[in-house]
Amino acid sequence: MTVGTHMPYDEALARFEPVLGLETHVELGTASKMFCGCKTTFGAPPNTQVCPTCLAFPGSLPTANAVAIESTIRIGLALNCSIAEWCRFARKNYFYPDMPKNYQISQYDEPLCFDGYLDVEVDGRTVRVEIERVHLEEDTGKSTHVGGATGRIQGADYSIVDYNRAGIPLVEIVTKPIEGTESLAPEVAKAYATELREIMRTLGVSDVRMEEGSMRCDVNVSLMPRGSSEWGTRTETKNVNSLRSIERSVRSEIERQAAILADGGRIIQETRHFHEDTGVTTPGRSKEEAQDYRYFPEPDLVPIAPDPAWVATLKDALPELPSVRRKRLQAEWGVSDLDMQAMHNADAFDLVEATVAAGAPAADARKWWMGELARRANESAVALATLPITPAQIARVTELVASGALNDKLAREVLEGVLAGEGSPDEVVERRGLKIVNDEGELSAIVDQVIAGNADAAEKVRSGKIAAAGALVGGVMKASRGKADAARARELILEKLGVSE
Ligand SMILES: [Zn+2]
Fold first, then answer.
1. Is the per-residue pLDDT at 3 higher than 70?
2. DSSP 206
3. In whole angstroms, how far apart are CA 431 and each of 248, 389, 406, 423, 425?
4. In angstroms, what is the span from residue 107 Cα to ligand 1's centroid?
5. According to CATH, where is 1.10.10 located in the chain?
6. What does the pLDDT look like over 432-444, one tens digit per residue?
7. Separation of CA 298 and ligand 1 centre (Å)
């Protein structure tokens, strides 16, 4: 492994300008496959979701999945693409054991969607990533190489193939070369993939689980020497499967390529693999000789000609997109960019929004989710949304605080009780006896008791040392186990001792 041949990042950036390109594959969440009626459930026993068509038996014929076409058009529209009025599938010919037909039905020079863009926010700056194309194709099966140290085919004793995934609709989203991102290149790549994932979720077209491979990114990186306008040779890091790895792989590739170029070497055009453990990429297959896939129009399928009126209907029916939603919520909640970023990172938008919808003021909803609850989620290393407490319950707690029935300290105890499964906020208040003492008679009795038990302090207050009242208030809070209204207790103490401020 070639660790130690990397140029420090800042130096690499001083000498070279990075150019990025991202190809993202998204498995659509359709109930059936792209060209047959087989189910697409993830994790089913191997080779149980197959049929003559997706196993490419002679004489079987594909039929295109209408929902997949509709989903792809919706993705294109969300990415500001033009939608083809007429396009065809194409055969991409190559041999691979997990691809039973020995060609993949894809799209070549006639993608369904083209010429779009996606704006991403990085470091307070908007970067426009231009989209070259969004096309539809079918996924391959999955090979598992058994034996050997790496899980790769090299050194394996034997390989087995599962065709359940073969034929699942796959959308490929290809960017144009992304220039001018400079030292932010790794963050831009990550922000783009993050935004893309949120758009897919919002559209409801895929579960976009990177760890299960339903969204995967190929990351292209090349370097241009400063002062040059000619792109360098690029490498393609394949199937990067987490947002953090996308960022790290770009950074590592910039550092690696810079070291080679500075040394007078040349970059080999190849695919590479990113290793989470070492944080570097290693070579895969060389792409020095262009593969000839001998594309030709798929003769077994009719062309796709989406009616422009239908496309317009789909466009009108698009849900509110994540970036629009974030801007709206920020305005509604009146929070800073930094707070928005923190909520974004904590995946808290839905929770805060639902809590506000349940009647809580935005500031309170945000305070509880981003304060106490975020802390507890962090402690137990779980996602905020999986805490056993609902937005409606948080709204009820804020209501109890606003009405004076709870103070913040007691409210935290109520949350603790709800999280521990002791019931609703009202039930926890009841069971733990957490209500603030705002019964005047009860409070008055506690004050009398505290004055009687602290004769020295009481005498000081009587003689004009009002500061000594603090100790008495402390006594009342202690005697009431934190449930007294401290301001009212202080008033009563002064009143009873015959002094005024
Ligand atoms: Zn099938």
1. no
2. -
3. 50, 18, 14, 9, 10
4. 20
5. 440-496
6. 887 777 677 888 8
7. 18
CA–centroid distance, 49 to ligand 1, in Å, is 7
| Contact (CB, 8 A) for 102 and 84 | no
Question: Ligand 1 center to residue 68 CA distance, Å?
Answer: 15
How far, in Å, is the centroid of ligand 1 from the Cα of 140?
A: 12
Task: Report yes or no: 274 and 288 within 8 Å, Cβ to Cβ.
Answer: no
**Do 26 and 241 form a contact (C-beta atoms < 8 A)?**
no
Token readout for 30 is 């359709």
135 CA to centre of ligand 1 in angstroms? 21
Residues 104-159: pLDDT tens digits? 999 999 999 999 999 998 988 899 999 999 999 999 999 999 988 777 788 889 99
**What pLDDT score was predicted for residue 50?**
98
Specify the pTM: 0.81
The single-letter DSSP state of residue 104 is E
Encoded tokens for 247: 């960022």
The domain defined by 440-496 carries CATH number 1.10.10: yes
For residue 171, the CA-to-ligand 1 centroid distance in Å is: 18
Average pLDDT over residues 266-281: 92
Is residue 473 packed enough to be buried (19+ CB in 10 Å), middle (13-18) or exposed (0-12)? Answer: buried
Measured in angstroms, how far is the CA atom of residue 158 from the centroid of ligand 1?
Answer: 25
Cα distance between residue 302 and residue 354, in whole Å: 46
